[in-house]
Amino acid sequence: MHFISEQRLDDGVLEREFTLGEIPGTLWTPGSAASSGAAPAPLVLMAHNNGLPKAQPRLVARARHCAAYGYAVASIDAPGCGDRPRSAVDEQARADIRRATQAGEPVDEIFESFIGPLVEKAVPEWRTTLDALLALPEIGGPVGYSGWTAVGIRLAVAEPRIAAAGFFAGGYVPRAQREEARQVTIPLLFLLQWDDEGNPRQRALDLFDAFGTKEKTLHANMGGHTGTPWFEVDDGNRFFGRHLK
Amino acid sequence: MHFISEQRLDDGVLEREFTLGEIPGTLWTPGSAASSGAAPAPLVLMAHNNGLPKAQPRLVARARHCAAYGYAVASIDAPGCGDRPRSAVDEQARADIRRATQAGEPVDEIFESFIGPLVEKAVPEWRTTLDALLALPEIGGPVGYSGWTAVGIRLAVAEPRIAAAGFFAGGYVPRAQREEARQVTIPLLFLLQWDDEGNPRQRALDLFDAFGTKEKTLHANMGGHTGTPWFEVDDGNRFFGRHLK
Q1: Which Gene3D superfamilies match (chains A, B) (predicted)?
Q2: Structural domains in chain B, sorted by start
């Protein structure tokens, strides 16, 4: 893991860009982590739905706030995500999904053939990143996960170090992850937008119902995909506060 | 309004029983309200679903916690509720609802003929109580409401001083209140239990959908009617913190 840049933000959070082999990532650590003798901060892995860039302003704002609350927060661009190289096939699939969503046409098949492999390729890199992050002295366990539902399901099932997860949206999730949802047994906070234009409400509610965990909470707010109210970021921090100890 | 008893709790909250004409009530005020020059505390009216007693331990625990957070909290036993006299017809209706619920039979008709009038009779007494409470120097506006969904809908529509409300359950709500749900325009926190044995899930979700307000949030947790996790009490306090200023 090589740190290639750093900046100290107004609230004391240290924001560092890193590379880990081919993986580009960002790590945010709370100001308190800099003081000598400070306990290692619990870690939250934060992924944007469907491979949006880790530099996307909404994710960055969420990550900075979460770090200011006291967590180490990390995000990466997995293969085909963010600024990583995209194949012509991927580009076409993304365009097809956008067009079909806007036209109100079914996107299941395109979604399945494109997002399914994206998730499969993302999860090993998230695990490699987790290994490297937990080797840093300022970061400890347990580990939380926040964001992209499909990657989160796969990680929660495959990775015993993930102790709690906050998932967002979840109307469209590849079949493989819908099927393994019942194997997820860690505490969950499932957040959705009631009128999410890209995520059918009933499907998201069905997914919430399907998770195997007994300790799951649903939060829903009005409005479209990007309309989540800011207080949900605080609710997410408090959720991790109950489980990452 | 006559205070008939008072006790100071460990966390400084003052718990006072009062009567207002025929209405028996309890008022909890934060310890800070006792200090001279303290600003009047915002008020939360707290009602138990379907007329359960204001002295019921779960409501009392919730009220005390909310008062310790900084709110004045009040509850009353409305006509036919709690320890107020019940007619033989009421007693029979309560027994019928219990029996039908346990047997998994439809309760709509019994519910409608019994709970409907209970709500109609309760709301004027809650408003009378509100007048008296707001006349106390230690209590100020704005006013929140927490608990019994049907009474809360009626109050939110009829009473402009109610600025925000937290509703619980809401699977069975009298027709009149289901119909006026779309007239509710204040911020709402709607809390339900995913497997509430007495409140069909889809009906509760439909009611959440029907509210006219743009600023509504749904929280759902696993388990039956009385299984709400304690952190939801904190979430409710923070919800009021955003709206009762």
Answers
A1: alpha/beta hydrolase
A2: 2-243 (3.40.50.1820)
